[in-house]
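Hi everyone, sorry if this is the wrong subforum. Our group has a chain we'd like a structural model of before ordering constructs, and none of us has done structure prediction before. Sequence below.
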Amino acid sequence: MRFSNLWIAFTVAVINTMSSNYHTHSTYCDGKDPLRAFVTAAETLHMEQLGFSSHAPVPFENDFGIAQEKIPQYCAEIDQLQKSTNVQLLKSLECDYIPRMSTPFEEFKTKYHLDYIIGGVHLVRPENDDRLWFIDGSKREIYDDGLANLFGGDIKKAVTTFWEQTFEMIETQRMDVVAHLDKIKMHNQHRFFQEDEPWYVALAEKAVHLVHEHDVVMEINTRGLYKKRCDAFYPSTELLKLAHKLDIPVIISTDAHKADELDLYRTEAIEELHRCGFLNLVHFDVEKGKFC
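Answer:
Right subforum, don't worry. Here is the predicted structure as C-alpha cells:
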C-alpha cells in the first residue's frame, strides 16, 4: 500500500497541469446549482480556471438546454462574478450536433462572445427520420427503447450512426473541445456490443484521427465513473493511447452538474493520462483565445 500511494503521488506530480474545470452545467441548463455555488467550490479547491458550459439551445422543447433568451443573462452573470473572485472564469456552451437540425456552433460563439465551444453528440438522428435517439441521461431504458424503435434493434447500425454523426460534427463544426468522445458506450454497459470488436474499433479510431486532423482538444471526462453509469473514462484507455500517439491536446473535465462534482475523479484521471503517456494538459490562454 505504501508503494501504491507513492506511485499516485508521482503520477500527479509528473503531469504538468493547471487546476481547472472547463465543462460545467449550472441551473441555467440541467445543472443543479447556481453559478455562484460553482465559483465558491472552485475557490475552495484553489482552482485557477473555471469554465461554464451550459447546454446550447436546440430547436425543440426540452428540459436540458439553456433558453436562447437567457444566454445574455448567463454571460452577464459570469462577468459579474469575475469581479469578486480570483478564479479566472470563462464563458462557453456545450453544443449538440444534430444533422440538419442544430445551429452552427460558430454562430453561438460569435454572437455571444464566448471563449470556447464544446461539441458533443447526445441525440442521434437516424437517416431519413426526424426522431432522435437519446443516448445520455440516467435512464438506460430510454437508450434501449430508442435502439429498438429507431434502429430495429440493430446495434451495429445504431452505433455506426452515432459515430458517423460524430465524424460529421468534427468535420463541419468549428469547436475547441470534443466532449465525451465515446459516450455511446455508457448505456451499452457491455450488453449489445464489445469495444474490442473490429468494426467498433475502426469507427472509434477514425474519430480520434479526425480530432487530430481538425486540431480539436479532447477531454477525458470523469462523469460516467462518479455517477456509476460507466466503468471507464470517456474516452477509453485504448483511444487515449492513440490520442497520445497523435499528440492530441487533452483536458480533464468532470462534466459537473453540481458544485461538489467539480473535482471528482480528477486524480484518477491524471493517473490514467500518465499511464497512457501524457505529461501535460492544456489550459485556456485568454490572451491567445485558445487552448494551448
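For your construct planning: Residues 1-14 have pLDDT under 50 and may be disordered. The first helix runs from residue 2 to 14.
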